[in-house]
Amino acid sequence: MPAPTHITVAGPAPYDVVVGHGLLGSLVELVGSGERTAVIHPAALRSIAHDIGDGLPDAHIIEVPDGEAQKTVKVAAYCWDMLGRAGFTRTDTVVGIGGGATTDLAGFVAATWLRGVAVVQVPTTLLGMVDAAVGGKTAINTAAGKNLVGAFHPPKAVLADLNLLETLPRTDYVAGLAEVVKVGFTHDPVILDLIEGGDVTSPQSVHTRELIERAIAVKAKVVAADLTERGEREFLNYGHTLGHAIEKVEDFRWAHGEAVSVGLVFAAELSRLAAGLDDTTARRHRDLLETLGLPTSYDGDWQQVHAAMAIDKKSRGSSLRFVVLDGLAQPRMLENPEPSLLTAAFDAVRSE
Ligand code: GLY
Prior knowledge:
- Helix content is 43%, strand content 19%.
- The protein has 13 helices and eleven strands.
- The strands form three sheets. It has a seven-stranded mixed β-sheet, with helices on both faces. It has a two-stranded antiparallel sheet with strand order 7-8.
- The chain is globular.
- Bound molecules: glycine (GLY).
- Glycine binds at residues 131, 135, 137, 233, 236.
- Residues 131, 135, 137, 233, 236 line the site of glycine.
């Protein structure tokens, strides 16, 4: 097996994303010298969380519900209670093991306990490895919407053990590829060439590690320059304005990556109409996502989708903002495009 790769996220408190195979044994080094750890995990990962806890100092295992159901203030309060009972101090470390929902929750609990304790993230999904667990965004959901309460709280380290991907249902893995495709279009077109060069729809694919490392490297660079999303971090939301709206309108029954996939086709068409993106690159979005088996069409109601986009946290004040491409790997923000351009782009994602 090749040695692990360390991708550093620079900033006031730099940290490494460690990528490789069979890395769980090195978690104890990343956790460091605190007296206690709290391992937050969803029910589905009970056995692996207990194994991990066995290798860590005074580990308190905190089981939470699977999926988005764990990202509530009630579950966060349960975790705070458990930390209180464990006598968790400022020098102790939270470990979040799971998909994006768990790393968001664990990060939020760590960000708020004693105004911030260390968290080491162990993403188990592709989406978590390339996006959610890297970059310090943490959040829970409220009745008003997804991720509306949270904090920027960069982790102490992220351990991306690629062996964990083998346990993932294939549809989850493929949904995570939508975020990889996204950074291919916004920042690193080599990703697109690799995806077009062979079947990448399983973690055993020959290009898996390179794709993941490339996507993490982009994220690391962008987040180091703009942790709090005042500038270029917003470009990582390419495809997400419509994607989030679809998730909301569909009551979160769509996988995030699948909604983003449709959002990417919409954003490409908007880019073609409003930013002069060439036809070939716009078409490449749909072709590539279809090859991966990701959805590229959505027949929902435009009024509902439009209303959901308007209250997304990606809008600012009353303006509706989209990431568009002037060309391949040339992202920029587009504010309040003509309504006719939005409906034309939405027509492009309706099934023929
Ligand atoms: N998922 C986009 C970001 O972390 O900024």
